[in-house]
Amino acid sequence: MPTVKRGKYRAFPVIGSNRHVETVFAALYRHRPKMRFRRECLRMIDGGTVALDWPVMGEDRDAAKWREKLPSDAPVLLFLPGLTGGSHDSYVKYLVSRVRNIGWHTVVFNSRGCSDSPVTSPKFYSASFTEDLRQVVRFVAYRFPESRIYAVGWSLGANILVRYLGQEGENCILSGAVSLCNPFDLVVADEDFRKGFNNIYDKSLATSLRTIFRKHAALFEEIGGEYNIPLAANAKTVRQFDEGLTRVSFGYRSVDEYYADASSSKSIEHVKVPLFCIQAANDPIAPNRAIPRAAIKENRNCLLVVTPKGGHLGWVAGQNAPFRNPWTDTVVVEYLEAVESLYRDRKSIQREQVSRKEDDHVEIACAT
Fold first, then answer.
1. Catalytic residue among 53, 89, 283, 329
2. Of 34, 113, 179, 290, which residue is the least packed, with the fewest Cβ within 10 Å?
């Protein structure tokens, strides 16, 4: 990983001098690559629906035809965008394009209601809910039986991904994962979210959540119980939305209990596959003080890189700054290629050992 080994991160002048400027600039002014997707909707066991977007590259309109052009054992990278995010986001599209260029399959996992994914049950998704991801990973593994499956998540998607890795432990289907801008401790993140300029992000995300909810409000009519539908429908903050809807949907007595249980920092010690965590020290939404440094250091499967600047989903640095892909794209690809190379080398050695054993057996049989 030459980019990490160099140990230098040079933020783009002016834009990178302030964490809020960098965060807002990346969200509003970063160019969005032109990219088409073929959508595949999956019905979950509880009646909910998620959408998988497969990129259609070149002149092929059919994603299945493009998949056939790659080797049958080409690795697969599954993408988990942040809260209310999806395949439409620039940071997702740039990495999809980059990973496709190295000969990997790619697929974006749009959670319930996100990126126009259909909502077919009175239940969205949450920071604590990993069952949809579990079913999606199994589906992708079924679709690509000869390939190793990897995943990359941003922000809330990273939190869900790390929780899943911890829950699966030794039985994890994924061969490796990357976590970016992970809030890790949602109690700490919630505290910081309500301070100063962060209120702008809070209101913006609440607006996105309200928009998704209102499209599917009919599913929640006369639902009863502890739900506070008016509060969710008119939420001014993410916390209000979680109080009115999320924490009730997933069986929590309070929002604070939900945030404490959903925090992925407690999952790090149980991760048994290679995990690369990339954070920015000045991230306004994923606080530096929430990073579980000790747990990551103690787990030999985990690697942590913290850049001095970068904001949230920003990282406006590198050759293509300020309008194109974030600095992290190069680092993520280097890591994934390194891990995949290790797996391939190990497989090659195992084949050689098996071959030698077979040759030894033949020699002994002849001698006898």
1. 283
2. 34
Query: Could you tell me the residue range of the domain that residue 244 belongs to?
Result: 186-262
H helix intervals, the chain = 2-6, 19-29, 63-69, 90-100, 131-143, 156-168, 186-193, 198-215, 229-233, 238-241, 247-249, 255-262, 293-298, 328-367
- The DSSP call for residue 290 is G
CB 95 within 8 A of CB 152: yes
Q: Count up the domains in the chain and report the number.
A: 2
pLDDT given for residue 280 in this prediction: 98
- pLDDT of res. 6: 85
- Determine contact, residues 284/311, Cβ cutoff 8 Å: yes
Distance between CA 80 and CA 85 in Å, rounded? 9
Output the pTM of the full model. 0.92
Task: Kindly state whether residues 347 and 322 are assigned to the same domain.
Answer: yes
**Is 283 a known active-site residue?**
yes
Distance CA 16, CA 41 (A): 39
Examine the fold and report which residue of 220, 240, 262 is the final residue of a domain before the chain moves on.
Answer: 262
Q: Which of 175, 265, 312, 329 is catalytic?
A: 312
- What are the two backbone dihedrals, phi and then psi, of residue 298, each rounded to the nearest 5 degrees? -80, -20
Looking at the fold, whether 171 and 62 belong to one and the same domain comes out as yes
Q: Is 20 a catalytic residue?
A: no
Task: List, in order, residues 6 or more apart from 229 with CB less than 8 Å away.
Answer: 217, 220, 221, 223, 244, 245
> Do 120 and 172 belong to one domain?
yes
Which one from 147, 155, 263, 264 is the annotated catalytic residue? 155
Work out whether the CA dihedral 329, 335, 339, 344 comes out positive or negative: positive
pLDDT for residue 59? 53
What phi and psi values does residue 174 have, to the nearest 5 degrees?
Answer: -65, 145
How big is the CA angle at 164 (ends 158 and 169), to the nearest 5 degrees?
A: 130
**Residue 202 known to be catalytic:** no
Q: Is 310 left (phi over 0), alpha (psi -120 to 50) or beta?
A: left
Res 362: pLDDT: 44
The mean pLDDT values, 10 residues at a time, for the chain of 368 residues are: 88 97 97 95 97 81 62 96 96 97 97 95 95 98 97 98 98 98 98 95 96 93 91 96 96 97 98 98 98 98 97 96 97 98 82 52 38
